[in-house]
């Protein structure tokens, strides 16, 4: 890797590369079929894929950038010993290495940076996708019995199994400088493309403040108002915030990363989640990529989250994101004060 390129460019290029490697780990765990699901808290689960992908990302980035503070969703992977050597990714993405660093980021040092890692955003969708992949009904039933996330009603409605939910899964790496997300990577391990006759799995979208975004084809927002929101963590307050938007359509999908992809690809124009469930690792990379594309991500009160090393992890006041300032202002003006008070604890 050229050591003359500015640090932010090298770190983003390494993050693009390692996110792809982590995505392969996510697919490999699924192919082996043993997800190793652990319940971390209410509606909060972790699988072998979350654990291994995080170890790959943190070990690789910290071997290259030892003074950068890296915070991952799944705690401290050092306690689990050495990682397999094939997980260590030290290559940098060649296209990102060619980017021009904006002058405001040229002098950034490792000590100024906090990287937020969500090795597998959309864990509910990942585990539910695993169940859908089991073609044999007996195998499915056995998996269901050991599956804490799925209601019997949902299980019985599973007639047409497909890959659907796995597309919602993303690997998120957000790079913040002085508390602000300035660069980010959203990798989608199950995105399918055809390269000639060959099916290729996975794509990586990146964004850099002052430069722009890459890895996908941008599209304008839909003509009518389409809102995207959670499909697995709803409650009456979340629903109330959706009703007041007067939307033509509500797109319920999994993961903060995938919802921001809906905005980037012109499938929705606003993302509303009036609930405390998301954490800093869920929003850092999506916020960086969305703002590099001209959008805005804040809490439900319209305030930006801060991403310094000492902040608390939960995004207590929800998520409000839009493809541009005008739509963000519209969404903010629709949220009733009583709902804002409820989330901010007033
Ligand atoms: N109540 C919650 N408990 C745990 N994680 C949550 C909760 N709500 C949201 N999240 C996290 O935020 C992401 C976006 O939420 P949602 O899909 O509901 O819109 C989820 O994929 C999940 O991240 P993760 O899957 O990495 O644990
Ligand atoms: Mg997440």
Automatic annotation (TrEMBL):
Its cofactor is Mg(2+). GO terms for molecular function: 3'(2'),5'-bisphosphate nucleotidase activity; inositol-1,4-bisphosphate 1-phosphatase activity; metal ion binding. Mg(2+) binds at residues 73, 118, 120-121, 282. GO terms for biological process: phosphatidylinositol phosphate biosynthetic process. Its EC number is 3.1.3.57, 3.1.3.7. It catalyses: 1D-myo-inositol 1,4-bisphosphate + H2O = 1D-myo-inositol 4-phosphate + phosphate; adenosine 3',5'-bisphosphate + H2O = AMP + phosphate; 1D-myo-inositol 1,3,4-trisphosphate + H2O = 1D-myo-inositol 3,4-bisphosphate + phosphate; adenosine 2',5'-bisphosphate + H2O = AMP + phosphate. Pfam families: Inositol_P. InterPro entries: CysQ/Inositol_MonoPase, Inositol_monoP_metal-BS, Inositol_monophosphatase-like, Inositol_monophosphatase_CS. Keywords: Hydrolase, Lithium, Magnesium, Metal-binding. One of its GO terms (cellular component) is cytoplasm. SUPFAM superfamilies: Carbohydrate phosphatase. Belongs to the inositol monophosphatase superfamily. This is 3'(2'),5'-bisphosphate nucleotidase 1. It comes from Danaus plexippus plexippus. The lineage of its organism: Eukaryota, Metazoa, Ecdysozoa, Arthropoda, Hexapoda.
């Amino acid at each position: 890797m050229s050591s003359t390129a500015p640090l932010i460019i090298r770190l983003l290029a390494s993050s693009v590369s390692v996110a792809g490697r982590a995505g392969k780990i996510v697919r490999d765990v699924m192919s082996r079929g043993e997800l190793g699901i652990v319940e971390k808290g209410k509606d909060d689960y972790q699988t072998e894929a979350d654990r291994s992908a995080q170890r790959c990302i943190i070990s690789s980035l910290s071997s290259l950038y030892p003074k950068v503070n890296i915070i991952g969703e799944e705690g401290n992977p050092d306690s689990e010993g050495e990682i397999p050597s094939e997980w260590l990714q030290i290559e940098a993405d060649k296209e990102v290495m060619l980017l021009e660093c904006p002058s405001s980021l040229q002098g950034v040092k490792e000590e100024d940076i906090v990287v937020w890692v969500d090795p597998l955003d959309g864990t509910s969708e990942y585990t539910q996708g695993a169940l859908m992949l089991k073609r044999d009904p007996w195998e499915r039933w056995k998996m269901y019995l050991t599956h804490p996330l799925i209601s019997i009603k949902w299980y019985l409605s599973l007639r047409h199994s497909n890959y659907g939910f796995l597309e919602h899964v993303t690997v998120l790496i957000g790079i913040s400088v002085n508390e602000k997300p300035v660069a980010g990577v959203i990798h989608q391990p199950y995105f399918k493309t055809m390269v000639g006759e060959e099916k290729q799995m996975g794509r990586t979208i990146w964004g850099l403040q002052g430069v722009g975004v890459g890895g996908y084809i941008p599209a304008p927002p839909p003509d009518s108002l389409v809102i995207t929101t959670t499909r697995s963590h709803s409650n009456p307050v979340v629903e109330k915030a959706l009703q007041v938007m007067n939307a033509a359509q509500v797109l319920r999908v999994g993961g903060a990363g995938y919802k921001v992809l809906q905005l980037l690809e012109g499938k929705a124009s606003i993302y509303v989640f009036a609930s405390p469930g998301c954490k800093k690792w869920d929003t850092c990379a999506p916020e960086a990529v969305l703002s590099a594309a001209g959008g805005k991500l804040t809490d439900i009160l319209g305030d930006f989250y801060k991403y310094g090393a000492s902040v608390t992890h939960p995004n207590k006041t929800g998520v409000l994101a839009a493809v541009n300032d005008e739509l963000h202002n519209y969404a903010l003006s629709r949220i009733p004060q009583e709902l804002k008070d409820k989330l901010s604890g007033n």
